[in-house]
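This part of the workshop introduces the protein records we will be handling. A learned vocabulary of local backbone shapes supplies the integers on the structure line. Getting from the letters to the tokens is the skill we practise here. As an example, a complete record with its sequence and its structure tokens follows.
=====
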Amino acid sequence: MSSFENKIVLITGGASGIGLLMGKKVLRRGAEKLIIWDVNSEGLDKVSEELGSEGYSVSTELIDVSDHKGVLKAAEKTLEEHGRVDILFNNAGIVAGKQFSEHSMESIKKTIDVNSLGLMYMARAFLSAMIENNFGHIINIASAAGLTPNPGMTVYAGSKWAAVGWSESLNLEMEKNGHPIKVLTVMPSYINTGMFEGVTTPFLTPLLDPDRVTDKILNAVERDKDRLREPFMVKLTPFIKGILPAKAYNFVAGKIFGVYQSMDTFKGRGSDKL
């Protein structure tokens, strides 16, 4: 079992959404310090003022996780200033809900850079120090889109498939090499934060409540879990996909559960900028 007590926690994309919620909650669970990295300067200022006024120790940094040079420089600065990062939440992510033929080359690259490479850059920047300190926890917020195909989010799904494969491989690598670094891969369906505004939720897969899902993520960290899938139907997805032929799975996912129509009504916060 792990604990947030007296830990230094870094959260990317922590100025809003579930990142902000998790930040507030780790402080309430006894974290010594919260470090927030985000691309939203106004959001960072607001969060810093809010949590600082409540007596919490909070540090913020304006960082784009897709910039590997910037990540390395900021990581070096963070380790110099704070000594260590015990728990890293790779939470930053973006989505462009559109047909693949409508994507620009720039939007393809940006989505992969943030959702896939950004997680790897962050983990690589802090992993050596974690191994040296003989402690560390890396939480990668992936997606249920990393488990199943879905038209209307081709590039996003591709980025999350990469994230899931890398994250679970990293976890096994840490175990195989005897490093006491825990890696948790989180694969939720649509969360009600605005990022997926307008989606039509699949049958038996309700829109996830941010408060409840963040509690489950933090509980999974404390229990040293390797994997978290929410809600229940997402837990079943790999099994169903594994036992059914491709056409049968597509019929079940598309026609019965409506997964493949879920993005037809998507509006999404900020998606028009990608």
User: Anything to note?
Assistant: The chain has one domain: 8-273. Residues 107 and 274 are 5 Å apart (CA to CA). The domain at 8-273 is CATH 3.40.50.720 (Rossmann fold).
